[in-house]
């Protein structure tokens, strides 16, 4: 009997799947030791990593940041492939925006001396939850200081426009909550597991975006794989595993037909056999695949795995890129403070789906392309809107916040739907 090499099939050609394929294929004697295939249900590689262009600038319609460069394998690949430099402008090429201008609904710019104590309080709250070191004054001391400021005359003793001092403080705090929702992809921060927050650790060092696009990392991982190893448009419908019962299978021409223990069933009716399968699909696909009426896994996964999959949460995050009109210059890093949706004081033309986003800013200094992030229900609603409805919503909102600026009507716009899993 001629022995067959074991066949390994990787399901998914995102970051995890391509990293696994890269490591296996480049390992010593891999070509002699096993066969390797990657099957991907979509029409491209990369999963939620997808770099694109908008009005001549490079943007990310999926994963955007390297959160800490010291020890990061993503940064190492980007560095080795000369992807950290580009003549073409790219999203957040100046790093994380600084020096925000905070404006409350109605066009009231807030003094940093009013905003910063609330920002510091929110940061200390999150640091406490995440188990990080807090400012030297101490967390409890900071709360007392903030309460004293809230009750005293301070820099804003009465309010501005139709805002009271208290409502402004609450709205600035809510603005930071919206930013945190974007970080976590949570529709409601109360749904987060704050014990697990303490387990999340970022790499140290600077946070950056990749000049030649996050997709350059994906392309580097895939570049070592031979043509044909990655098969696109092959969506797996069922994974069937039969570890026993292979004895006595019919032999033909020295080979054992159907002797591999795993069979993949694809949506087009075709199948593929394998000895080992590495599943790198998203949490959403796993949730659907382990539901009672799915049958994606046969036999079903053990309960400790399905239980873990069911308990993990994930959310929706969307990005909107808008091109401002030519007469618009020096658009600020705008932090937006809104009345609650149920407030009688809210401006009726500002759509509710904008009220829980926290900022609008150029993608780099002096760029006419501005960016805003949406999370949760607002992100889902955004997907149902037309481009014209999105542009109209921003065109009503920005002049309300920045009345001294020219009307910021967008001459072009695009929305993308990146998603990330909850921590």
Automatic annotation (TrEMBL):
Pfam family for this entry, one: Amino_oxidase
Spans annotated as Disordered: 401-423
Annotated transmembrane regions: none
Domain of life the protein comes from: Eukaryota
Amine oxidase domain span: 15-405
The keyword Cytoplasm is assigned to this record: yes
Compartments it resides in: Cytoplasm
The keyword DNA repair is annotated on this UniProt entry: no
Family (UniProt): Belongs to the flavin monoamine oxidase family.
Protein name: Polyamine oxidase 5
């Amino acid at each position: 009997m001629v022995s067959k090499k074991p066949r390994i099939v990787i399901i998914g050609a995102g970051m995890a799947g391509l990293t696994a394929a890269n490591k296996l294929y480049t390992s010593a004697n891999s070509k002699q030791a096993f066969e390797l295939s990657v099957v991907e249900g979509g029409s491209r590689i990369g999963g939620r990593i997808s770099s694109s262009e908008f009005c001549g600038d490079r943007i990310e319609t999926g994963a955007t940041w390297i959160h800490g460069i010291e020890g990061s394998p993503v940064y190492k690949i980007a560095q080795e492939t000369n992807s950290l430099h580009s003549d073409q402008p790219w999203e957040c090429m100046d790093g994380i925006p600084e020096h925000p201008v905070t404006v409350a609904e109605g066009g009231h710019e807030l003094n940093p001396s009013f905003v910063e104590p609330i920002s510091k309080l929110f940061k200390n709250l999150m640091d406490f939850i995440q188990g990080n070191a807090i400012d030297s004054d101490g967390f409890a001391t900071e709360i007392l200081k903030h309460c004293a400021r809230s009750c005293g005359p301070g820099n804003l003793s009465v309010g501005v426009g139709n805002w009271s001092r208290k409502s402004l403080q609450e709205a600035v705090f809510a603005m930071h909550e919206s930013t945190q929702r974007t970080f976590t992809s949570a529709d409601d921060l109360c749904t987060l597991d704050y014990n697990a927050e303490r387990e999340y650790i970022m790499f140290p060092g600077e946070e950056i975006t990749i000049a030649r696009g996050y997709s350059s990392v994906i392309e580097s991982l895939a570049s070592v794989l031979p043509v044909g190893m990655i098969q696109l448009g092959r969506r797996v419908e069922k994974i069937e595993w039969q570890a026993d019962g292979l004895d006595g299978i019919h032999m033909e021409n020295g080979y054992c037909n159907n002797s591999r223990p795993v069979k993949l069933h694809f949506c087009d009716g075709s199948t593929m056999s394998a000895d080992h399968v590495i599943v790198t699909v998203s949490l959403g696909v796993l949730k659907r695949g382990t539901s009672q009426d799915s049958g994606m896994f046969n036999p079903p996964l053990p309960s400790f795995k399905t239980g873990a999959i069911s308990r993990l949460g994930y959310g929706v995050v969307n990005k909107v890129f808008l091109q401002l009109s030519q007469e618009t210059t020096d658009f600020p890093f705008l932090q937006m403070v809104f009345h609650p949706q149920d407030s009688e004081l809210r401006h009726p033309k500002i759509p509710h789906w904008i009220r829980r986003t926290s900022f609008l800013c150029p993608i780099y200094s002096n760029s006419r392309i501005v960016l805003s992030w949406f999370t949760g229900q607002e992100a889902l609603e955004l997907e149902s809107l037309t481009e014209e409805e999105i542009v109209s919503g921003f065109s009503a909102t920005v002049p309300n916040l920045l009345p001294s600026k020219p009307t910021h009507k967008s001459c072009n716009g695009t929305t993308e739907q990146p998603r990330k899993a909850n921590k």
